[in-house]
Write a structure and sequence with these properties.
2 domains; eight-stranded antiparallel sheet; two-stranded antiparallel sheet; globular; mainly beta; Umud Fragment, subunit A
């Protein structure tokens, strides 16, 4: 088994001062048969407005490592993190534990909190009163490179 904190995150503040409206297929893109509706793209979307609900408490992070791969988080992916959201059981969170940032799924139990990886090669982290621990923010979106 590997060390439990392998996946970490580079954090960047979200800059919502600019607008970038991109063409948007409002009615969805058919994953079955092709649709002629793609010829009628006349709506635009600003991803800052769509993906960021709380600009003052929102950050971007780049995933480094593979401990969350089975949750769809892969090395190099970008996540959007909202620090204003309440931590909850089952949520994916950016956590600060014993001097390191890591990204894991929160699991609350009677004996405390666990930080759960999504890769069987990694061990869960049991958070106790002896750890320096903070749930820094909750992941709201994943941006992937194809």
């Amino acid at each position: 088994m590997n060390h439990t904190k392998d996946t970490f995150i580079e954090v960047f503040p979200a800059d919502v001062s600019s607008e970038l409206e991109l063409p948007f297929v409002e009615n969805g893109i058919n994953a079955g048969f092709p649709s002629p509706a793609a010829d009628f793209i006349d709506v635009c979307i600003d991803l800052n407005k769509h993906l960021i609900k709380n600009p003052a408490s929102t950050f971007y992070g780049r995933i480094k490592g593979n401990s969350m791969r089975d949750a769809g988080l892969h090395d190099g992916d970008i996540v959007i993190i909202d620090k204003s959201l309440e931590p909850a059981d089952g949520k994916i969170a950016v956590c600060f534990i014993d001097g390191d940032f890591t990204i894991k799924r929160i699991k609350k139990e009677k004996d405390g909190c666990w930080l759960m990886p999504a890769n069987p090669e990694f061990l869960p982290i049991h958070v106790t009163e002896h750890n320096q621990f903070l749930i820094w923010g909750i992941v709201t979106y994943i941006i992937k490179k194809c």
